[in-house]
Amino acid sequence: RTTMKSLRFISAEAFVSNAEFARKSLGAVAHDLFPLLFKASYLLEQGEVIHDLVENWPLFDFNMGKLLGATLDYQEDLSHRTCSVCLESCLTGLRDYVLNQSSPYMKKLRVVDLTGMKDVEVQFCKCKKTMGRWARTQLLSKLCSELLVCLQQAQCNPGTFEISINVLIDLFVTERNYDLVVQALLKKCSCPLKICCVAFRSDNLTLQKFFYIIKLTDPSLLRKLEVVHNVHLEMEHLEMLFNSIHFPLLMSLTLPARTFNVRRFTATDEQMLANVGEKMGEMTQLTELNISFSILTGRIQKLLSPLKTPLKMLDVSNCSLNHADMAFLANSFHANHLEALDLSGHDIPELYPSTFFKLLSHCSSVLRSLTLEDCNIQDTHVNMLILGLSPCQKLQEFKFIGNPLSSQALKHLFTFLCELPMLKNVEFPVPRDCYPVGITYPIDDASLCRYDHQKYERVAEELNLILLQANREDVKASTPLFGSYDAAVEETNNELGAYLIKSFKETLEKFTTSFSKMS
């Protein structure tokens, strides 16, 4: 599919395609043409031109999402191109904007917004090398430190020290880039480029380091907080966090697995859970909550009832919810506002079929994403599922990997899914009849790939044919056995893998030592 370009955009492409000529001629370019030239340079991956455009940026703001998004001159959105060449040129250009004393333009730049970049699985840039959120965090922190060194060493124009640019960014911090980011945040006051953290993700960090850096980010500006995987944050630490730090603008909160575990609750823990709920209730902007892989049996009401703003996104996958939890969700004021819901890991047909369908009917007018992985949905439940999904006319994404459905049931379901007008993405399970007879669900990791691959390919072709015959080529259907693509995990998997091996080694050593003592 070719996106139409205006004559202006074609001219901009021609201008920037000769990098040497373009760089020499920038001084004669009208200010209002800089955004157009920036997008054209980004499309053509003209790193040197991008650098010089940013170094001489004549406008008050520089918003990556808007600059690369759909424009009248070129409708295609380039904000999902996290091209390493382009982004590095952009950030070094920003550093040199501060240092450049001979720029013909008055330095007006006050706000740089890097939050509009979208990290996706498939990249269309020629260099094929991406710069993800972690690497953007790393590079910006490094450039801020370099900038301070340059300012201290060089004979700078006094005006340089008056430059103050707020750089809005989604920070991603792990053990490996922690020290660099901390240094940049500590020196924020004296650096012309001021890191303003809008979203913060931490992984593979000790609790001490997490608590220290979160205070440095200026939590009053934070809209999104993700504490994931290897940060051992439990309920008592969460209560401490909420008691010591206020998050007035927080809209989205993701907590690591096992933050809550009601199986070992005492009376003190019950009070602690109530306190955490009350603190979340004070976050009046909070509309997205991910508490997956915590054990919250019978406690959802205690945790969520203090919330004063309805949730638009709720992930309670693998939280061991009981009927009372599901009844609370179905009858709560959140139900009518849920745009994304994940109930994976719950035996819905066995435990609370009617309550689940009540919840689904309440959110059907707004629901965009539904995830029901490993929910024991079988062939006998498909007609009921179709009935429940029929009103969900805004559904864009439906994921139901890990359910024991036959090829025939999947074909029946796909015929219905073609009727959902907004649907764009379906993640379906390997059919039950592709596995050996007697396979038990949920399928363990060792058996996950032991299915008839040829038969699966035939069934997948038939399912795609159903979409094709209904003129629904716009729907992507796939079976990601080991979970959907996660840009953050993908970018840091080497570090996380090394951490897991280290943890396993330490556990093994402790076990060996204990065993030796016993012997």
Automatic annotation (TrEMBL):
In its keyword annotation, does this UniProt entry include Repeat?
yes
Q: Any idea which UniProt keywords this protein has?
A: Leucine-rich repeat, Repeat
GO cellular component, as recorded: cytoplasm
Write out the similarity annotation.
Belongs to the PRAME family. LRRC14 subfamily.
- PANTHER family recorded: LEUCINE-RICH REPEAT-CONTAINING PROTEIN 14B, SIMILAR TO PREFERENTIALLY EXPRESSED ANTIGEN IN MELANOMA-LIKE 3
Q: What is this protein's record name? A: Leucine-rich repeat-containing protein 14B
* The organism of origin for this protein: Pomatorhinus ruficollis (streak-breasted scimitar babbler)
The UniProt gene name for this protein comes to Lrrc14b
